[in-house]
Amino acid sequence: MTTARAYLTGFGRYLPGPAVDNEGIAARLGGDDAVTARIRGSILASNGIRQRHYALDEQGEPTELNEELAVKALHAALDDRGIRPSDLRMLATATTLGDVLVPGFANMVHGRLGGGPMQLLSASGVCASSMAALDAVVSKVRLGDHPRGAVVASELPSRSLRQRRYDGFRAGMDAHFLRWMLSDGAGAVVVEFQPHPTRLSLRVDWIRQVSLAHDHAVCMRAGMSGDATHVGGTWQDVALADAQAAGMFVLRQDVGMLDDLAQAGIAQFEELVDIGLVDVRHLDHVICHYSTNVFRDVAFDALRRRIPSLDTDRWFSNLETRGNTGSASIFIALEEAWRTGRFQPGETVLLAVPESGRFSFAFAQLTVVAPSRPQGASS
Amino acid sequence: MTSATSTDPSTAAAGASLLERLGDVWLELEDHLAKVPVLQRLDDGTVTVEDYLRLLFNLRQQVIDGSLWIARAASNFDIDHFELRAAAIKHAEEEHRDHFLLEADYVALGGSRAELRAGRKNVGSEALSGYLFTYASRPNPAGLIGAMFIIEGLGARRAAQWAARFQEVLGLADNQVHFMTYHQEADGAHTGDMEAILTSGLIDDATADEIVRCAQVVARLYALQLEELDR
């Protein structure tokens, strides 16, 4: 069977409101008591994030829906490519939590975006759901089922990071860690079967996603108590007031597992090198989603074992200035790297997204390609 | 071109079989195809997705008529031409949904189904379609076997080559070249059926002349359809 190729031809992002520095967080999320302030300071010092965006006003009231962030990022990507929603035949969305329980996030985003009939996929999960959504659209474009689709990853965790969610129970480090790390934003890409006619494009060489949930307990969670599910024990089984009181609506991460997550991610990367999907001699750009600078340094050390001459300038991240936007982070970083002219034809771009949820890892390799307009065409 | 100097196949040459005469018509067609701009660009690797979309768009406006003129021809064969009528009825049914394959390819390339359906024939397609409907309206239009020889021959012998080359140059998926690849199999079967008719001994000399003449006209008009894209 002959398949087409898939190219990323348009890039967009949307970050709501003004950039909020570390001093501006408490006004929006609350938690201005001395103990919480100390914990916050300590977490911010280690994660290295200096600025982020929230879809909250200065009083902490919501200003936008998650689906609105997604649509604005999509419009930015479509404008970047010079096409309209009606040109899309598929839309895949990724988010950790949509605005509503039902229907799917992609359905709500399509409804707000407009355009014509199209195939939808709502990928759920956490950070790597963006790569699952990308893989779906890329696969359908390669099959020739659709000439053009879009992928958007969008997160609006801020409203559930506000003080009211944390009232009434004693939040441990597992709850604080994400509260002072996550923020809002959306990133989108356009996928087509042909390169952009007049600009550079990013050809998708491969996408790999693997879960190690068979071997690991839950690490990042909400809607359950403890790290294991049991019948009658999820947020849907108990009275909502009891679920709230038990802190079940708070996003938590078992920070004690994160070293294991980093090591497992490095092992996955090593495997990609061993089987030849990644050629370390031709690894021009690396865009890795990580939650804190601590994990960047762990990753650098691991890469140096394979690439002693690793040039860390080739490693792009905007975590410090755009925050950790979960599934959206990888596209928000890719968009900025793209827009700021880092890429040259023939270079490779490795995307890497570890997801703590229950240990999954997604990687993709892109190659920068020249415009499609053939040289020496007779007309 | 050497074939331009060969004997005119429309007049029965002593000893030349019907298949040999149709073979000469085919060579004339090949000469014309070699001068079609979009096929030249396909050959030299400068063809674009837009070229392929325009080609499908133009073909569609005539393909949509395919089963209609064959069905009209079928209705004009009397009982003495029962076998030809049976073949035409079967063929019309098989061609009946062809344009949907073409539409699916067109849409899979990013084209608009509504625009495709709202399209008009180019001047070559107008001439080709007009000729075929007129011919099919005659009593016992056996000459149309010559039309089928050309049109089915293009499907069986050339379309799959074009599809493979479009895939090679433009990086297309199989799902974007269904119409042209399908015809390799479908029209291959049809040309097999047709060769059985042509060599059956049921065709008299006058009918053979009609078949060859019709093939000649259709070959020229088909090439014209490819030359006159969007005009």
Summarize the structure.
With 379 residues, chain A is of the alpha/beta class. In chain A, 31% of the residues lie in helices and 20% in strands.
Secondary structure elements and their pairing?
The complex is a heterodimer of chains A (379) and B (231).
Chain A: E1 7-14, E2 20-21, H1 25-29, H2 34-47, E3 51-52, H3 66-81, E4 90-94, H4 105-113, E5 119-123, H5 129-143, E6 148-155, H6 173-179, E7 185-192, E8 201-211, E9 220-221, H7 240-245, E10 252-253, H8 258-274, E11 285-288, H9 293-306, E12 315-316, H10 319-322, H11 329-339, E13 348-355, E14 360-369
Parallel strand pairs in A: 4-5, 4-6, 11-12, 11-13
Antiparallel strand pairs in A: 1-7, 1-8, 2-3, 6-7, 8-14, 9-10, 13-14
Helix pairs in contact in A: 3-4, 8-9
Chain B: H1 18-33, H2 37-44, H3 49-63, H4 66-75, H5 82-95, H6 98-108, H7 113-117, H8 123-136, H9 144-170, H10 178-198, H11 205-227
Helix pairs in contact in B: 1-11, 3-6, 3-8, 4-5, 4-8, 8-11, 9-10, 9-11
Organism (chain B): Cellulomonas phragmiteti
Protein name (chain B): 3-oxoacyl-ACP synthase
Domain Beta-ketoacyl-[acyl-carrier-protein] synthase III C-terminal (chain A): 281-352
Kindly describe this structure.
- The complex is a heterodimer of chains A (379) and B (231).
- Chain A is an alpha/beta fold and 379 residues long.
- Chain A folds into two domains: 7-192, Thiolase/Chalcone synthase (Peroxisomal Thiolase, Chain A, domain 1, 3-Layer(aba) Sandwich), CATH 3.40.47; 201-369, Thiolase/Chalcone synthase (Peroxisomal Thiolase, Chain A, domain 1).
- In chain A, 31% of the residues lie in helices and 20% in strands.
- Chain A contains eleven helices and 14 strands.
- Chain A has a ten-stranded mixed β-sheet with strand order 5-4-6-7-1-8-14-13-11-12, sandwiched between helices. A two-stranded antiparallel ribbon of chain A has the order 2-3.
- The longest helix of chain A is centred in the last third of the chain and has 17 residues, at 258-274.
- Mean pLDDT of chain A is 93; it is low at 375-379.
- With 231 residues, chain B is mostly helical.
- Chain B has one domain (17-227): Heme Oxygenase, Chain A (Up-down Bundle).
- In chain B, helix 4 runs parallel beside helix 8, helix 8 (123-136) packs antiparallel against helix 11 and helix 9 runs parallel beside helix 11.
- Chain B is globular, with a radius of gyration of 17 Å.
- The model of chain B is unreliable at 1-6 (pLDDT under 50).
- Classes of the chains: A alpha/beta (379), B mainly alpha (231).
- The interface between A and B is medium-sized, with 20 and 17 residues.
